[in-house]
Every structure is written in C-alpha cells, then in structure tokens.
Design a protein that fits this description.
- A six-stranded parallel beta sheet has the order 14-13-15-16-12-17, sandwiched between helices. A five-stranded mixed barrel has the order 1-2-3-5-4.
- 43% of the residues are buried.
- The protein contains 28 helices and 27 strands.
- The chain is of the alpha/beta class.
- The protein is 41% helix and 22% strand.
Length: 728
C-alpha cells in the first residue's frame, strides 16, 4: 500500500457506476500518474491523500484506489463548493444533490467562511445565498435540513468514506435506512455494521467498518452477511434460491459462504440457524435443500398462492362462445381482417377463463389478438374496465399505440418503488392484460398480483423464447410449464409478416438452424475478424450514416431509427467503449463525459419526474455538474451531480435494455471475444427488435455457435411446481 499527496489533472476514462481512470499529479515529485477506482475526486484545486496499490491496467502502471481519498485542504474554494454540492436534499418530494450551481451561490456570499456560517445558522445562510433563486425559501429550508443532517452524521460519514464507500452511496443508504427502519446510519452500523450488505456494500467494506468500530469479526452477523451476499449474487444471476445440503456441496451456498469468510461449513450453518428471519430452507429431492432469502421465498410462494386462488375461483359468467364469435365477426368487418383459428381461440380463452396466457414470436399476431380481446369485452366503452400493463415505459407506450388504449408501466400503476415489494395502489377491472411478461421478475410479479383486487380476466402475454428477466425468476416460462393455466401458442406467421426476412430468420433461430438468409438489404452480414475490427466497423457504419445528414432534426431521427445492440458492456467492442467512440466522433467540441446532443438512456424509474427506466432522449444542456435531457416522451429533466450516473450513453445498448422496444434498424455485434454471452435467445431477442432492417457485424462462426447454443432458462425456481402441486 502506498500513500501519495496528489492533485487531480484530467479524466482518462469514465465507465459504469462511477468507475473511472484519471490522471493525477504527485505534489511532492510533480510526476503524473494514473489512478483507477469508483468516484475519483476531480476537484482541480483540492489536494488529496490517495492510498492504493500499484498494478498493471491496459499496459500501464496504475494506482488502484483503496478507500476514499482524504482531503488535505478542507478550506479553499474548491473544497468548500465540492462538500456542499455533494449533499443531497429533498425538494418537492424529489431527493437530489445540491449541485455545484447552488453551492457556488453560497460560496459567492460567504467565501472562506461558508462552512462556519452554515454551522451557525444553516437556514439563514441559505436564505441569504439563494435570495435570487426561484422558490428560494422552500429551497433554502430544504438545503438547511440537509446541512443539519450532514453535520449530525459527519463522523459516521467520514468513517464510511475511509472504509471505501463513496458519499453518494452513503447518502443512498441513509435515505433507505430512514425509510425502511426509521434509523440513523450511525446507530445502524454501531448495532450491526453488516447491515450494509443489504444496501449493496461489499463484504470487504463491512469488515473494514466492523474493524474500525471494534465489532467482533467472528460474529453470527458476519456469517449471515456472507450468506446473504452469496444469495444476492445468485439473485442477480437469475436464481430465486440456491441449492445445498447439510454440510455443503461443491459450489453450493454453504461452501461458497464458507470459502468467502474463510470458515468451515459447520460454523456457517450454525450462524445461519441463529437467524430464521433471514433465510428459508426447504427440503428438495436427492438429499438437497433449497436455501432462500426470506423475501425471495415470500415472492415465489406468494405468486403461487395468489394465482392458485384465481385459477380455482368460481368462473364468472361472462360472454357465451356465440356472443364472443359474434363480437369477433364484427371486429373483423370493422378492421377488414380475418383472424386465424388460433387467434380466435386466444380471444375466447381470454374472455372465458379467469387467467390465461398468450405466447408467440413476432409476426404471429399477438397485438391483433389483444385488440380483439379489448373490442370483444362486453363493456368495452368504459375505459376503466380494461387495464393494460407492461414492465417498461417503452413497452407500455408501444402497447398503447398498437391497441389504441392507455397503457401503463406496472411500477407506476401500482405505485411500486425500485426496491419495494408492495405497491400503494390497488387495481380493479374486468380485464387486466400484462404484456412482455417474460421481462417480469419475481419481485415485480408478486407486487403486481398482490395489488389486484376484483378482476374477471387476467391475461399474461409474451414471448417465452426471449431473454428472461434481468433479476431473479423465469415467470412466463414457469407459468406455462405449470400446466395449470390455459395457454394459446400463436405459431402461424400472419400474411403481413410472411415476406419478412426478419421474421423468417427469427423462426430459423428458434429452430436452431444457423443457415440464415441474407439479402444484403433488409438482412445483411458484414464479416470481420477481430473485436477491434468489429468495433471500428460498427462505429463507422453508425457515424457515417448520421454525419451525412445536414440538420440536427435529421440526425436525431436517424439516431432514433438505428440502434446498436452489443452483448457485453465492457471490454473491446463492449457497449461502453462503442458509445464513447461514437460520442467523441459525433460531438467533437466537448470533452464532457455527457455532451449536448448525446443520445442517452435513463437507468432508474423516477415517477415524480415521469421518467421511466429505459426511456431515451438527448442531452440539451450541460452546465457545471447539471445535465438536462429532453426525453422522447416530451419530458425534460435536469440531473444534478451524482444523479447523472442515472444516465448512460445509448447509441449502443445491451439486448436486455432493448427488450420491449422496437427500432427501424438494428445493428448486432457478433465479436468472438464476447462468446460467453452469445446464446440463441440473445440473438433471437436482438433481431426481433428490428421493424425493417438487421445488420450483423462480426464472425459467422460466432453467429452459428450462438444459434446452436440453446441456453435453457437454467435458473433456480420452482414456481411451476408450486402451481402444479401446491406445496412442493
């Protein structure tokens, strides 16, 4: 471990979740050196003590940051502004960083005495500094409360920073602890520093905090935190639970936890057994057991119980088959179409059963069926009788446009927060349709079903062959696999899609046939050898198309129409690198990580601002640490300070991010270096996002391998068995 007194020089690379590489100047030797880490300090006039270890990074000697840099000068303009700017305050129900613009206003008035004045009377200081600001009194009061909150927890915050937690993470943990437990961060960590594991802190940081405050390192709390860390990782990989048996199995939960903590299996079992509120252990076949976080157990069993109750409920007397047939005949006449046999069956099933499923690939007429269901419902004139839902904002807008009725995201309609498992609003309707069900994870589905009151017909819609949800579960696959819910599989390509090479090739991919057809127009393949060549080709294709257009409106229309889909975020030809290359080439007059004109994607739901996870837009202004974005929905939102991390460049996105959306043209990267992410359902999901054209760039060998590699939804879940057998 080395310690260096240093000053920030410039940023060299910015990645996800605050990771960056920057150049610093050694104050004692004047030599420049590279540092990598999370949330590196970037104040030009502040001196820091930086600690870390030297290692090789991309061929050069780089200091890997350890802990949080210590500010050597707590006075001075830059240090004062930086401290105030990073504090988070609640204004009109929205929690956001104060930001450099407002921090500078305070410094302008009080200069070197800003901290002293804030400590004396924070409300008076903020009122004086913000007198020219709109809603100055409300804003000043909110900022004063934030300062009081900071000074109350200052010692605890500095402790957590020394142990390696970034301030924005600490602020987030403070907010969540207050909301969920009504507890301050200092009291919480003194009681149990390992509680931080529940809020995304690594076990190593929990250990450092425990050591600093003298908390016993051989405690049950540490064992429980280790097991939870393994289960959280399992959930991120899609598993609702992990398997194990009494004294551990290879790669089982207990053996993984024991290895992580350098303990034996018996100590892990003993520690876990002392807190039955955290884990649920069930016997399984073959001498194994299923180990759940109790919340995950609640989600899985809750979904099964609610759906079983709906399935077994007395059938509500609705339309007769003849009445539905008449309504469909009328629908066909009005729209000038003829429904296929299975499409008619799907409508009848949806309106005759309490719960049903409609599944099928693009081109099989799912949207036509949904429109027919809504039209055939007896009281179709009443908007409130029908609720249309989808997991993402884009999917909801696409559903609304296709069906001609309002659709909402699941989160916004039931009032579900990002990490909550209960909505605040109940749903009652004759018909509730959930589109893109394959994207729903166990938490979201449990919350949705728990929020439904009286409902005559519940219809799940989706394509089971697409990628499963990002988080734990395989909901649509399990619902179908249970055999308890009637399913209509739409498998006939409709007339309007018969000539589409995209649809035809999608069917070949599903069948495991790697002999795709290319016409060099609507479906093209550009062969490359290396990842570097693939990256260059994709960047040139995109930029050449955009650069030849004259007006900003034409350029944005082209960027809206073309979407690059990259299997991985990192490495060569990863989405992060491709995005930076395109941004730097298209917008040359700025060195900001986000520039005016950049295409961006929002990464977190923000219902107060009416912005959803996955919404795309364009940066319209950048000022200091404030970034304003105009989204495709017409909503304008300003991101301040660390909240800009909720934005990412969106020229290139992953297949998961593209799911539920459509674009005129899709460009898919197929670099062999990304083979670990290449599976049939990823390729299928990627190309079915295209409405008109698909361009594949990379290796045909990689394409064939991906199509022939069927990645079963190999996620640990027994929702299907619980639905089929009850207790399982």
């Amino acid at each position: 471990m080395v310690s260096i007194r240093a000053q920030y020089s410039k940023e060299l690379y910015s990645g996800d979740h605050g990771f960056c590489v920057a150049l610093y100047k050694n104050i004692d030797t004047s030599e420049q050196f590279k540092v990598k880490g999370i949330d590196l300090p970037k104040s030009l006039k502040v001196k820091f003590m930086i600690e870390g270890d030297w290692e090789d990074y991309n061929g050069s000697r780089t200091l890997k940051l350890s802990g949080r840099p210590i500010i050597l000068e707590t006075s001075g303009k830059a240090a004062i502004i930086n401290l105030i700017a990073t504090l988070r305050y609640c204004f009109h129900g929205i929690i956001t960083p104060i930001g450099r613009r407002l921090a500078k206003k305070i410094y302008r008035v009080f200069t070197e005495k800003s901290i002293e004045r804030l400590n004396e009377d924070p409300l008076k200081a903020c009122l004086i500094a913000l007198k020219s600001e709109k809603q100055d009194e409300e804003k000043a009061a909110a900022m004063a409360e934030a300062w009081k909150d900071y000074t109350k927890d200052e010692a605890d915050i500095k402790l957590l920073e020394r142990c390696g937690l970034a301030y924005r993470k600490i602020a987030s943990i403070k907010e969540k602890l207050k909301a969920s437990r009504g507890q301050g961060i200092g009291d919480a960590i003194k009681e149990n520093p390992y509680i931080l594991i529940d809020y995304g802190a690594p076990l190593a940081i929990c250990d450092l905090v425990a050591h600093e405050i003298g908390f016993p390192m051989d405690s049950d709390q540490r064992v429980i935190a280790g097991a939870k860390a393994v289960l959280y990782k399992g959930a991120a990989d899609g598993h609702v639970f992990l398997y194990d048996k009494d004294f551990g199995i290879t790669k089982g939960l207990i053996s993984q936890t024991a290895s992580m903590l350098s303990l034996d299996a018996e100590r892990v079992i003993r520690g876990m057994s002392n807190d039955s509120r955290m884990f649920k252990i069930e016997k399984a076949k073959g001498g194994l057991c299923r180990v759940y976080l109790y919340s995950m157990y609640t989600y899985e069993t809750g979904i099964a119980k609610i759906l079983t109750r709906v399935i077994n409920a007395r059938q509500i007397e609705g339309l007769s088959e003849n009445a539905i047939g008449q309504a469909l005949n009328e629908y066909e006449m009005n729209w000038g179409i003829t429904l296929a046999k299975k499409q008619r069956q799907a409508v009848k099933m949806a309106l005759r059963c309490n719960v049903s499923i409609i599944t099928g690939s693009p081109g099989t007429g799912k949207t036509t069926v949904l429109k027919a269901i809504c039209e055939a419902l007896p009281s179709r004139a009443k908007e409130e009788d029908i609720i249309l839902l989808a997991p993402t904002g884009k999917a909801a807008r696409r559903m609304s446009k296709a069906i001609g009725r309002d659709a909402s995201t699941i989160h916004s309609r039931i009032g579900l927060g990002e990490e909550e498992d209960a909505g605040t609003q109940y749903l009652e309707a004759k018909l509730i349709i959930i589109d893109e069900t394959s994207m729903c994870d166990v938490r979201v589905m449990y919350s949705l079903l728990s929020s439904i009151g009286d409902c005559e017909h519940l219809v799940f819609v989706g394509d089971v062959k697409q990628l499963p949800s990002v988080f734990a579960g395989k909901i649509l696959d399990d619902l179908i696999g249970s055999g308890r819910i009637p399913v209509t599989r739409l498998d006939i390509i409709q007339r309007q899609a018969e000539d589409s090479l995209i649809v035809a090739n999608a069917q070949r991919i599903l069948a495991g046939d790697a002999n795709l057809q290319f016409d060099n127009q609507t479906f093209r393949f550009i062969e490359t050898v290396t990842a570097e060549e693939t990256e260059n080709k994709i960047v040139n294709l995109y930029c050449n198309t955009v650069e030849k257009l004259k007006t900003e409106q034409e350029r944005q229309e082209a960027m809206n129409a073309i979407q690059l889909i990259i299997p991985m975020k990192k490495r060569i030809c990863g989405a992060i690198k491709v995005n930076k290359d395109i941004s730097d080439r298209l917008i040359k007059d700025s060195k900001d990580s986000l520039k005016v004109g950049d295409k961006v994607i929002n990464l977190k739901n923000d219902y107060a601002s009416d912005v959803n996870n996955g919404d795309m837009g364009y940066v319209i202004s950048v000022s200091d640490d404030e970034v304003a974005v105009l989204f495709e929905t017409g909503v304008e939102k300003v991101y301040v300070g660390s909240d800009t991390d909720k934005l990412a460049l969106a020229y290139a996105i992953t297949a998961h991010k593209a799911q539920g959306d459509e674009f005129d043209t899709i460009v898919v990267s197929l670099a062999e270096e990304q083979a670990c992410m290449m599976y049939r359902n990823l390729i299928y999901t990627a190309i079915t996002r295209a409405k008109k054209n698909v361009v594949m760039v990379g290796s045909k060998k990689m394409l064939a391998k991906a199509i022939l590699t069927e990645r079963a939804n190999g996620r640990n879940s027994v929702l299907d068995k619980r639905l089929e057998y009850g207790r399982y």
